[in-house]
Amino acid sequence: MRRVLACALVLFCAACTGQNLYTTPRTLPEDRGQVIIAPQIAFRPKRPPMTDCSEDRCARSDTSEKPPQFPVPHAAYRTAIGERGEVGVHGGIDAWGADGKWNALRTATFDLALFARLSYVVASLPTHRRDEPSRAHSGLLLYVPILLGLNLGRFTLVASPGYTVVVDAAGRLTHALRAGAGVQVRVTSGFALMPEASILHDVYGPAWLDTVTAGLGFIFPNLAAPSKP
């Protein structure tokens, strides 16, 4: 019952698209759960040159750098599946979804996990065309990073390079590369902090996905301390 209530809380909490992960490669012990609340800020760099536009429309297009948004709370709930598996849910007003993690390599000092997250997002997504600066967007985002963790006592340094694909409401695909880095600090046996930053850069497709996200994860109870391989 407590897990059901935790999942409900996550699914109705305001959240971003789930670009930051706030987790390490090490999975939770069996039959354990974890709640993550993370205020985070996402902003876009200067818009790149547009294509396929008339001179009049190009002149009126706004290519200025957008200021950072106010912090938005990201929320997630994670639970163990077997000895090396883990699943999670995240959600909010404009984004919700689920993910899975498999801790493929586990040692006292180094962990590696395969991770996949699928999010449904409702947002206004700008494109690379000046004659189509933005459109209502309801679509799917698939993140497929590899989690690399270096365990140093109370600290775990995490890198999460990977691939992202967006399928918008019109069925168009945009491909992007993602890179993330963070450090989990286990303050007590039941609480951890994890600052994390990630970069998303589109490489092919109509959508302009370039985004930088930075946040601070509050993790409790933290039950995945890698004291043993």
Record the SSE blueprint.
Blueprint: H1 2-11, E1 33-43, H2 55-60, E2 72-81, E3 85-90, E4 95-106, E5 110-126, E6 134-152, E7 155-159, E8 162-167, E9 173-188, E10 191-204, E11 211-220
Antiparallel strand pairs: 1-2, 1-11, 2-3, 3-4, 4-5, 5-6, 6-7, 6-8, 7-9, 8-9, 9-10, 10-11
Verbal overview:
The chain has a single domain, classed as Lipocalin (Beta Barrel), CATH 2.40.128. The protein is 7% helix and 55% strand. The protein has 2 helices and 11 strands; from the N terminus they run H-E-H-E-E-E-E-E-E-E-E-E-E. It has helices at residues 2-11, 55-60; strands at 33-43, 72-81, 85-90, 95-106, 110-126, 134-152, 155-159, 162-167, 173-188, 191-204, 211-220. Strands 1, 2, 3, 4, 5, 6, 7, 8, 9, 10 and 11 form an 11-stranded antiparallel β-sheet that branches. The radius of gyration is 19 Å and the shape is globular. The protein starts with a helix and ends in a 9-residue tail after the last strand.
